[in-house]
């Protein structure tokens, strides 16, 4: 996992600070571990801290309707989450450990002091806000697409964030269940299974033990993600 200072240096929000600043942030930071599937905080909870993934993966969830949660993102090492990061008073989404995870917790008051003392961090916060707004707009537009396009978009996004090129294709290094993919695409488990099985038969992807996906025809998925037409399933 590396030392606390090494982890903080990999966080894009804190990039470029001097060594003393990292030690100061480290002094404020609490290191916590959660088993897989354990909730870190819930949507609507008070946003009293900034959280950073040190090791493992965190699943961000939002309740779309009563009894139905949609996966917004899967976060990996170095990524920041929690409503306090964006200066919100409440957490806009639920955070859940997708794998056994170690996270860093920085109290809100310490984070606000950090923004005042280091303008560079405040500038990066504005950049982060812009990126998340752009991503939210893309997701909103995606809702209007047919379900197969949405699943292709999800798989390509994961490949972009956590893809490892290998001889037999691009391997997504995040373990994913069919339910994870369905919830990220806003569709049913049955529809996700049907579409992924069709892609496997076509030779576009291969699913591997442990929930890993290997993309064998990246161009086919890209073309599908940007195509139009009637859905094979209505989600």
Automatic annotation (TrEMBL):
GO molecular function, one term: DNA binding
Domain HTH crp-type: 145-219
Nucleotide-binding as UniProt keyword: no
Swiss-Prot/TrEMBL keywords: DNA-binding, Kinase, Transcription, Transcription regulation, Transferase
Residue ranges of domain Cyclic nucleotide-binding in the record: 13-132
SMART domains assigned: cNMP, HTH_CRP
Listed name of the protein: cAMP-binding domain of CRP or a regulatory subunit of cAMP-dependent protein kinases
Gene3D superfamilies, alphabetized: Jelly Rolls, Winged helix-like DNA-binding domain superfamily/Winged helix DNA-binding domain
Pfam families: cNMP_binding, HTH_Crp_2
CC annotations in GO: cytosol
Top-level taxonomy: Bacteria, Bacillati, Chloroflexota, Thermoflexia, Thermoflexales
Entry keyword DNA-binding: yes
């Amino acid at each position: 996992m590396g030392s606390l200072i090494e982890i903080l240096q990999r966080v894009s929000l804190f990039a470029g600070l001097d060594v003393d600043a990292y030690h100061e942030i480290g002094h404020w930071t609490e290191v916590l571990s959660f088993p897989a599937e354990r909730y870190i905080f819930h949507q609507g909870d008070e946003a009293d801290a900034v959280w950073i993934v040190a090791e493992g993966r965190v699943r961000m969830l939002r309740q779309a309707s009563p009894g139905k949660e949609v996966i917004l993102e899967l976060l990996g090492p170095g990524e920041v989450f929690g409503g306090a990061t964006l200066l919100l008073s409440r957490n806009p989404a639920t955070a859940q450990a997708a794998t056994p995870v170690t996270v860093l917790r920085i109290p809100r008051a310490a984070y606000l002091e950090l923004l005042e003392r280091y303008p560079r961090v405040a500038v990066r916060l504005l950049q982060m806000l812009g990126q998340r707004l752009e991503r939210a707009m893309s997701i909103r537009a995606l809702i209007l697409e047919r379900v197969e396009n949405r699943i292709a978009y999800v798989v390509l996004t994961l490949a972009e964030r956590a893809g490892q090129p290998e001889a037999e294709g691009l391997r997504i290094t995040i373990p994913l269940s069919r339910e994870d993919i369905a919830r990220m695409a806003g569709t049913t488990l049955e529809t996700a299974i049907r579409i992924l099985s069709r892609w496997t038969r076509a030779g576009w992807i291969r699913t591997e033990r442990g929930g890993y996906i290997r993309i064998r025809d990246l161009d086919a998925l890209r073309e599908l993600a940007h195509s139009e037409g009637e859905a094979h399933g209505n989600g």
